[in-house]
Amino acid sequence: MALTSTPEQPLPVRTVARAIGDWINRLGRVWVEGQLTEIVRRPGLATVFLTLRDPVADVSLRLTCPRAVCDAVGSALTDGARVVVQGKPSFHPARGTLALAVTEIRPIGTGILLARLEQLRGMLAAEGLFAASRKRRPPFLPRAVGLITGRASAAERDVVMNARRRWPAVRIVSREVAVQGPLAVGQIIDALRELDGVPEVDVIVIARGGGSLEDLLPFSDEALVRAVAAATTPVVSAIGHEQDTPLLDFVADVRASTPTDAAKRVVPDVAEQLALVTTLRGRARRSVEQRLDREERWLADLRGRPALAAPGRELDRHDEYVRALRSRGRRCVLHQLERADQELAHALAQLHALSPAATLDRGYALVRRVADGSIVRDPAQATPGDALTVRVAGGSFPATVDSPPAGARTQTGTTT
Q1: Which of 256, 296, 302, 304 has most Cβ atoms within 10 angstroms of its Cβ?
Q2: pLDDT at 288 exceeding the cut of 90
Q3: Which pLDDT does position 411 carry in this prediction?
Q4: Is 322 helix (H, G, I), strand (E, B) or coil?
Q5: Residue 37, pLDDT score
Q6: Residue 267 CB: number of other CB atoms within 10 A?
């Protein structure tokens, strides 16, 4: 039933507190699972005060438990223990606080814890948080290494000493946190986010020594696993020993079997790198020397060939060849000239035989009329008084028709 009130008629605190108490008291008994923190046993007091924390969310609930119930649990009732409690919610009007009045506490056994961790691992794997495709390789030589570990712990000493032994100039940015108990998850997540925001930190190592399953439970916390998956900087998990496999190992970019192994994985060994450089330099030197030896043998082989061993001999051979070609060319040219001379002489003889001068040499004469230069071929062409030019073998002389030539049919006369 809702309470009725107005600014003019407000309800007193006791009425509201009593109504809240009545509503909560109507709730039945419930079983609740969580992680115990802040266990307070006051001497002479029959009630033990505890806090039950949700391991995934930042939510806690106050518990009140009879001392006898807590003593019945024995040594399993420790800070950070995972338990299942039965109780009834109750509201204390005098203090205005809500608490769970516990009547039974049952520690969660190892088998149950492992089964629940396996169930959580399957769920996270189905989401792809453990996929190999999302894992990143840390840089070969990081500018700075972020280290999240316990205060003055052996894990911190192992990581720092081995990293500096391998690479003395390495820079390590440490964050000391609780590595077990109810505060561990929150502090580790805060340190992870802080180091993830430092630009110089190229890799983050989360390290802890060995321990029981309960001690390593914070490193299987769902909130921590999701925080590591969301980090932009590569994360190396170095939790416990080789046989310890918290869920952090599956989501981390690199899983180291021990903190010492983590140091080997984040920084190179300067001695190994120097030895590698020496080996590579020797290999390069041998390769160059082999190449030079091969080229020297090739040059020696070239120099041993006749063309390079006695270059003058080849020049002499070519000189003889050129001389032979020149002699052959000269002979061909002379032969062609002789043939041309013979052909020219033959042509000249033919030309001389056919020449009018040769006919004149045999006693013939060539008569031309002076008036028009025409050749007189018939006596009828000449008339008395015509001026003629008579050409004989020895030269030309003039003549005049005096009378008609003998044998002319129409004219008579003499020539002089």
Answers
A1: 256
A2: yes
A3: 40
A4: helix
A5: 82
A6: 25
